[in-house]
Amino acid sequence: MIGRTGFDTSSIPDPTLSLSCDWDGVSPALSVGSSIFREWREPGRDFEADFAPLPVLNRAFGGSQTADQLEVMDAIVFPLAPRVLVYYCGSNDLNAGASSRDILGNFSEWSRRAQEKLPGVNIAFVSINRAPQKRPLWPVLDETNERIAAHCNESGRGFHSSTFRLNLRHFCH
User: Fold this and answer.
1) What is the domain count for the chain?
2) Does residue 6 lie within any of the structural domains?
3) Does residue 1 fall inside a structural domain?
4) Residues 30, 79: contact at Cβ < 8 Å?
5) Which of 34, 84, 125, 170 has the fewest CB atoms within 10 Å, counting from its CB?
6) 15 is a domain residue
7) What is the pTM of this model?
8) By the 8 A CB rule, do 40 and 81 touch?
């Protein structure tokens, strides 16, 4: 694992809140990652419809880096036994000076663990957003997205979406 230790865990959602939900035996779609997902809103967007018939849970937390996702996945991913995992993380890594190789290494390990503990889980990596404030980082951001897309294609451990216009219905039926 490449990253940091001792990050602030106060914004991590309590996974036990979801364990009491009644899903009629249906495994959920779970979004994980950083605040882009935690705060993801689009006018007119119906996220529940995107994932139907699966229930949708959001376990993203602000400030998250890829190493943090590795550290918390035992607590926030595996107890929920999701059928679909949607991952957005890496932007904060770039802000902290991580290389594309570091981010790819952490995502690769994360997806390996997910496939190992949740055989058959579908993983979608949503590409790191080219936000205007990240313009100086766009070269490494683009390299990271390209490396992860190649990893998803070569390893068979995921699907890479190059836009936020993500339609996961093919994962959910």
Assistant:
1) 1
2) no
3) no
4) no
5) 170
6) no
7) 0.80
8) no
